[in-house]
Design a protein that fits this description.
This protein is mostly helical. The relative contact order is 0.17. It is globular and about 65 Å long. It contains eight helices and three strands.
């Protein structure tokens, strides 16, 4: 059996690898699209770390990543419902059963001022939306449920856009020192249409990665888990051939 000191040394070696990679990503320079490429690399860190907490190889990627972020990223707003996304859904669903929810959502939305940046902490909790969501219509539009509008699932949607399409969803703009997700109000010059654009800035990804690394170290040590035993290593690229 591995001693406590040996376990701590193994954990620190494993975590140290990711801390070094984080420093490299933090300092990385790109000729263009720096925030985009840094976010993709930070997502790679989260994906890799999430794999060590997966109980089954058959676990869906969405479940693995969202569960990891909930547990280790220290993101308190992950369960809130994006109000602009909810309002857009309600405008596409005229069914009278949604009238109470529509009135509730617009009572909140009308308080947002176009001249201000709105943090996602202003978004309503899921519990508040569920009070008004009609039980008879769990999926009112193309399979969209209330959970699809939660930030944890929008985060995964954002992740897929980054990894699979090499782009960020929406049209929001961020600044170098932004560390918390927010909404910015934008007006289309040609159509004069107005939108609230959701932004997950690169500083946010950096923060949740660092938090996840720190919390995961504590988890390994407290639970007496050697992270190296939770990963697959070997000559063969097909994991089962190395066992």
């Amino acid at each position: 059996m591995t001693s406590h000191m040996e376990l701590v040394d193994s954990v620190d070696r494993f975590i140290g690898y990711f801390r070094v990679k984080m420093e490299t990503i933090d300092k990385a320079e790109f000729k263009e699209s720096k925030p985009l490429f840094q976010k993709i690399l930070y997502i790679g860190v989260l994906d890799a770390l999430a794999g060590t907490t997966t109980y089954s190889k058959k676990q869906k990627n969405w479940e693995r990543i969202t569960s990891f972020v909930k547990q280790f990223a220290g993101w308190q707003e992950h369960d809130r419902v994006s109000l602009p996304h909810l309002v857009q859904l309600l405008q596409k669903v005229p069914d009278p059963e949604f009238s109470p929810l529509r009135q509730f959502a617009f009572s909140l939305f009308d308080q947002w001022s176009p001249g201000h940046v709105v943090k996602i902490s202003e978004d309503p909790p899921l519990t508040d939306i569920k009070k008004h969501w009609p039980a008879s219509m769990p999926k009112p539009l193309e399979g969209i449920t209330i959970e699809h509008l939660q930030h944890i699932n929008l985060f995964y949607k954002y992740r897929n856009n980054l990894v699979h399409e090499l782009r960020e969803p929406g049209y929001g703009a961020e600044f170098e020192n932004d560390v918390e997700p927010f909404y910015c109000h934008m007006t289309d010059i040609e159509t004069e249409g107005q939108t609230w654009e959701l932004v997950y800035p690169v500083g946010f990804y950096q923060r949740i990665c660092r938090t996840a690394i720190d919390r995961l170290r504590e988890y390994y040590v407290q639970q007496r888990l050697d992270p190296y035993s939770l990963c697959s290593f070997g000559t063969y690229w097909i994991e089962d051939l190395n066992e």
